[in-house]
Structure formats: structure tokens, C-alpha cells
Amino acid sequence: MKVNHFDFxxxxxxxxERKKISIWDIVVGDVIPLSIGDQVPADGIFIEGHSLLIDxxxxxxxxxxxxxxxxxxxxxxxxKVIDGQGIMLVTGVGINTEWGQVMASVSExxxxxxxxxxxxxxxxxxxGKVGLTVAVLVFVILFIRFFAIDYKKPxxxxxxxxxxxxxxxFSIAVTIVVVAVPEGLPLAVTLTLAYSMRKMMADKSLVRxxxxxxxxxxxxxxxxxxxxxxTTNKMxxxxxxxxxxxxDAVDSDEFIPHNLHQTIIRSICLNSTGTVxxxxxxxxxxxxxxxxxxxxxxxxxxxxxxxxxxxxxxxILHVETFNSTKKRAGVVFKNDEGIVEAHWKxxxxxxxxxxxxxxxxxxxxxxxxxxKRTELENVIGGMAAKSLRCIAFxxxxxxxxxxxxxxEESSEWKQPEDNLILLGICGIKDPCRNGVxxxxxxCQHAGVxxxxxxxxxxxxxxxxAQECGILKxxxxxxxxxxxxxxxxxxLDRDLEKLVVMARSSPTDKxxxxxxxxxxxNVVAVTGDGTNDAxxxxxxxxxxxxxxxxxxxxxxxxDIIILDDNFTSVVKVVRWGRSVYSNIQKFIQFQLxxxxxxxxxxFISSISTGKVPLTAVQLxxxxxxxxxxGALALATEPPTDDLMDLxxxxxxxxxxxxxxxxxxxxxAIFQIVVLLTLDFAGNSILKLSxxxxxxxxxxxxxxxxxxxxxxxxxIFNAFVFCQVFNEINARRPTTFNIFxxxxxxxxxxxIIVVEVILQFVIVQFxxxxxxxxxxxxxxxxxxxxxxxxxxPVGFLVKxxxxxxxxxxxxLNLCCGLWGKKKKSKAKDSLDATESIPKESEQTNxxxxxxxxxHGGNISDADNRRLPSNGEIHDGEKTHVVSAV
Length: 883
Description:
By secondary structure, this protein is α+β, with helices and mostly antiparallel strands. It is a multi-pass membrane protein.
């Protein structure tokens, strides 16, 4: 697998000297300095530093940055430094890093067929065998009949005549085989996949592997990452206590007194290590810094803060950097009134403990009584219960003369932190994306179970899962370390109930995907980090994020979600079901054509020794109807009711009972009508012997002109039956077959082209197709016969179908699901299934890597056709009782 790399070079300390070398020249034992904005170039151990904060979300999935010190010394390649500085000792490079182990686990591809390919191969094989059997029988019957009856006729005295007759028999047999083999099936599959892939781009989904389109339609569970997929991956202030009131309207300054408004804005702007870059055009200002800093600065901008103006207009006298022990940061500055103020920001419970006053709704400081302190503690507790990180802001005026003016004194001076005045408390979190809850509910309604897998702590994971609608009362929440201990018995008992996994490692996510697949699920996985790559690679469908996703994640995925939004994942499911549905529609249409043509020729050959549909006519049907039919049905757009159906099971047949009902009903109707015309057409149509073509070259031996006229009518009626039935095939389960047809201009155009081509071959290509020109009344008769396919299709939908699936050899062979093309892991079906298991053992490179969670030493270790009797008509569902 090829991944794009860029060599930016990196500073190292060798022999006591700093030098810049290529990242490819870094070796184990190198000492590397790190500062804000750097990307960790290799795995290593923290030696020394100050407030070193690392973003490990791409490797561990945790949205919270990790502070590195002697207790949490591990550094992983590819992570970013977002605050502080430090020095690391390189312990692993290349394939021996965590990143390298992930790459090794996703670099193989065993080239196995996809589930739909296996099913379609079964369909094609079965149809081909049936066609070959019919062709052999027709040839044998014609051969025996000729030498038993026709051979004695005077016109066959010459050997050349006999040879010509045998060759014609053979050509008919070969034609039957050609017609029976569904050449249009691969075309239909390719067209519907290509069409869907192009349309999915408009829905913010880039398909890397075509087969993933149809597989996504069969997904039974989606294992979604939290950060960046379900959430915005942007810490945001969502609740605040200001002016003695708690409020959700954090982006409005209407409820904040003016003097409090100015003070809190100064506190947010000046007591921050983050920066705000001016907006360009209509774009939003770019905020940089730690997640907490960006959340606070973003809140300040909503309250009307002018970051650049305040920074330039204010003289900062002293800065207290954030201390992980004290959990607060401070700044001393002189405001625009010349008053020196000391401001503090930090963990709400810590800041509250330092305050003796608070600012009320009038913007005035008030003494903090024990009752008020308890009330504020409850406010903090309430925010924490909602999984909000609480940050408090406080200040106090101080004497300017007490603030040292030179750098040496300033380094020794301690900023006053007693008798503070509480300005406000804000609750921040990584909020859910808009529309995620509705998207999750749509998945659940469609029978697709959504699971959340995250590296965050269990409290945050539970809160987000409940907000998104993933976690219900009966759902199970488990932590990664606990899940690792589950044996097969526990997995069998509790796996289906598991909906949230917190503090998960790449190994945990991979085990979850494998376990779900082994128990018959079709698994889709979303992820954006390097840590997600093994699970993306192992899943039936891997979906990576286009904006926040790492290159490794994208390379390991089948589909890239360009807007990083879970709602786009639901659209992918919808398109996947449309692919499967369109293929089913074409199979229904094609099998109707094949069954009718083979049956008519077979019965006629037995009865009369002649076939009403000639080799050229059958090839014409095969070339024009199947090819154009594939194009028409493969480009049917998805409908909303696709998400009202359950996903296709692993062993569910491709051809459902409803499809068999529709195929047999239409085939029986066409066979009865066309055979009636063949056997009794002369008398029914009152054809005299001389009715028909005057061109004698169209006549064979003892044929009469009316025989050519009759077979032309049969051929024309047969084609019009397929034209009308093609419209039936658009909506196999609904009574309104015209629903949405006015929006599908391509389908309408193809129907028109088919009619025009049929008119041309009947009226003008007589010698080529052995047809004769038809009068208007015969054209009307053919159209009426074709039109009757509509009421037949309407009435047959009232017939119930058995709930138990019809399982001929066709469905048994095409019901077997192959493993995903790139799957390397064991992919066996449930032991209760009658289908043999298929398993493959593989070494798991991830399993042997160190599992230091967060670097902490203490943690190392278009509609699918339903198989029942449901008929969907618009928004109504009619359930027909089973036979």
C-alpha cells in the first residue's frame, strides 16, 4: 500500500549539538526536542519538558489531549504537540512504531469475491445450466422429429437440404443457450454501481471500491467512532452561568450586564495561550490552541470579543502558565480604566474554592454566602452530570505597585489567588453534529444497529451516546479493558446488547468487528484515525472521514465520507440498498424474458417441430431488450421507503418469494397468450393462406405466407410484453408502478428507443429478422397484449407468498456469502446455519504491540424486495397473510 509522505525535516540533538536532519534519518537513541506545532516523528519516551500536551486522537481515538510527564512518558509517532515543550528519546522508528504496526496490519489483500459477486455467479450458473438443458432437449427433439417424420418428404431428398436443416436445428439450440445466459446481468451490475458511485459524490461520499456500494446496503450494524463523526471534534461552550443565572443561550450577550460583559470578555481574551486569526471574506476566524482554549475563545467571539484590538490595547504585566497540579492559569493586566486586575481561569471547583464574592445580575460583586456556594457547587455538579467540562473565570483588583516590573522579580512573584470574585462558569464539550440523532434513528428504523466505539472515558461516551440516541435503556456500555476479557460464551450472550465501548484500543475495536462478523453480521466501521485502520480494513465496509481522517485511515477504507458527517453514512446505506434493489429488479425482468422464450420454443418444438421465435429474433431480444433493460433498471434512483426495510441477511436468497411470484405470473400470462397465437392464431385472427409477405424468400419449404405473419405477430407481442413488464419491474412490491417515473428521464427515453427499434426491425428489416410488415390493427393487438401485463402485475400483488423462502439450487448457490475481498480474518457464519463455515486464521500485528492507553504506564496492558407478504404503496404498508 502506498501512502504519501512529506519530509519536513526535524531537529535532533546529537553530540550535544542541535541539527536538522531528514525524518528518514532518525534512528533509535536520538534525542529530539518538541515544541508547539511539531508532529512526533517516532515512538519515544519523554525525558524532560514543561506542560507538554499531545493530541493522540489519531492513534487512540481520545479527543482529550494528553499531558506528558514522568508518569505518562510514552510518545507515539504521528501525534501532534499542541502545547508546551519537551525532549524525547526515540525508542522505535518505521515498522517498529505503533503507526508502523497499524500499517502492517492493513497492507494485505487476499482478493476474495464480494458477497454479491458470489450470489450473482450462482444466479448466472443456474440460469446457464437450465438454458443448456433446454437447448439440448430442443435439439434432440427437433432432430428425432425430423428423421422420424420430415425426412421422408420430397424436399429433403438432397443431402444438402438435410445438412441445412440440421444446421438450423443446431443454430436454434445455440441461440437458446445464448438467450438463457444472462449477459445483461454483469452490465446491470456495473451500470448500477457506476451510476450510484457518481451520484454518491453529490451526497458527500467518495467510493474507492465499487463493491462497497452494494455491501453497504446489506449492513446490519455500524460501529462508529465518536470524535469527528458523531461529534464535531470541536470543543464548544454549550452552557454558562453568568450574572447569577444559568443559561443555554451562550452565544447571546442579552442576559449579561454591560460591565460584566466587558470584564468576562477581557478575561477570556487575555488569560489565554490561544490565538485568533482574522477571518478572510465570509470565512470564520481561525482559532488555534488547546481544545479548552479554542472553546473559550470561540465563546468570547460569540459574545462580541475583538481579540486583536484587546491584545494590542492592553498591557499584560504578568502571566501564570497553566499548572496541572493547581489546574488553573492566570494573568495580570492593566485595564482601559487604568486599574490593575488579576484574572484566573481553571477547573470550576478549584476556582470556586478561591472565591469570596460573585458578580450578580446587575454586574455588581456580592458576598458569597454558604448557601450561594452550595448553589454554585450544584451548578457545577449539574454540568458535570451532563458530561460537560466546567471552567470558571474569576478576578480581583490589585495594587499596581505590588506587581514587579522587571523580568527577574516577575519570575519569583506569585499572582494573588485569594479573595477572588467569580465572574462566571461555562460548560464545554464536543457537541453532537446537527442531524446525527435523526440519522441514528433512521438507521435503527431500517434495522441497522449503530454502535459507538471511542477512546474517551465511559462517562463522556455514555452521555454522547444518549444524546445521539444510540444508548437505550436495554443497551450495554463496556470499557475496552473489560471487553478484552470476554470469552466466546460471554460474546454470545452479551455482544448483541453492546452499543457503547469506551476507552477502547485498536485491538478492542478489531476484536469487536471480528466477533460481530463471526455471528452473522455485515459490519460497517467508521473512523478517522490511524488507530481505526485495522478495524476499517477488517470490516465488510470501511468508511473513513475525508476532512479529519488520516492518510492511513483513508487507504484502509472502502468509502470516504467527504464531510465527516454521520448523516452521510445513512445516505450511503440508502444508496447501497438501491444498488441491491436495482439488481433484483433487473433479475426479475431478465428471468421473465428467459422463462417465456425458452418455454415457448420448447413446447412448440415438441408439438410442431418448429419454433415461433427464430434465432435472429431471440438474439434481437437478447441484444436490445436485455442491454437497454439493464441500463433502464440499473439507473433507478433510490426511494425513501428503502429505509423502511430490514437489511439483507447473510443467507437470504437473491431471488425472493415475491420475485418468484412476479416472474411466474408474467411468464405464465405471456406463455399462454403467445402459445395460443402459435397454435390457433390462424383461426383466431382469421388469416387466409395468402395473408402475409409476398417475398418468397421469407418462406421456408412448406411454410405459408400467413405463418410468417403469425410468427411476426407473436414476436412483436412478445417484445411489447417485455416493454410493459419493464415498467412493472420498477416497482415489484407497490401497486403504483408509475411512482417517480416522471423524474427518471433516462428510463422514459430507453422505453421510447426500444419501441422505435422494434418498429424498425418489424417494418423494414424483414429479411434480416424473417418478419413481415404489420398493419395497424396487428400493431394495436400487440400493444394490447403487452398492456395486459400491467393489470396482471397489479392483480398478482394481492396473492400472498409463503414466509419460508423458496430454496431451489439457484438460491442455495447464490445465497452463500463470500468474505469481503480484503478480509483477512476468520469470517465464519453462525453455527446454527446449514451453510458450511469458512474460516481463516491470521496473525494480528496489533495484538503484539504495546497497549499503553494514552501513554500511561499504569494502563499498559432503491428497495430490497421483501421476502414476506408486505406490499408498500406510498406511505402505506399492506400485510398479506402467508399461505
